[in-house]
Amino acid sequence: MKGKEWYQADDVADEYDDKRFTGGGELIDLREKQAVLDALGPVEDKRILEVACGTGRFTVMLAERGADIIGLDISPAMMAKGRKKAQRAGVSGSVEFMRGDAARLPFPDDHFDAVFAMRFFHLADTPVTFLRELRRVSKEQVFFDTFTRPSTRVLYNWLLPMGSRLYSKRDVESLLADSGLSLAAATHDFMLPYGFYRELPGAVARPFRTVDTALGSTPLGDAVASVSYWNAKKE
């Protein structure tokens, strides 16, 4: 997986949330969380797996809403942050963090009501392998996001320390077909790339986000959006 060593470094975990989800990055955090909630729907008493859970942004959010959730990640430092979040939120009893490999998930077939992965597929060297594993352990639903090609993200993609795989719609359709999944719904967002928002204070970023959202609702928006959210079902 791209950037595997970089991602597991302790200093990366220490700075991960602050660098990405403060200031203008808060707008990214809010949109991603809403995308997960929209896709999964009511989660109370559902058994859910999050692959590449990182610092537990989504894991803890869903536990607070009553999910029985496991967050799996390769980085102990990231998961330590997630456990602290769960403790502060008072949901340690309904969330479990596990270290594991997304290419060999340590769960039986059809074990979870839903499986999702955010901020993961842009790092995957063999995405079909990972997606087949997500499908295998889910009873029905698999939800994930991708960074999109073509989009404004290509302007800075090569600067990222861990690299980044970009996907066209055709790429994702092929990936789903090879994994035995069918597309149930897709949404596309952020004409301006994430990196742009993260560099701005929140008060400055919000007007840009308003314009971005308005333009994104036009036919042009889907064509040049930098992020796509894919809600898939088992065939």
Automatic annotation (TrEMBL):
Molecular function terms, GO-annotated: S-adenosylmethionine-dependent methyltransferase activity
Sections of the chain in a coiled coil: none
GO BP: methylation
KW Cell cycle (keyword) present: no
This protein's UniProt keywords: Methyltransferase, Transferase
Pfam families, per the entry: Methyltransf_11
InterPro entries reported in the protein's UniProt record: Methyltransf_11, SAM-dependent_MTases_sf
Positions of the Methyltransferase type domain: 49-140
Record's protein name: Class I SAM-dependent methyltransferase
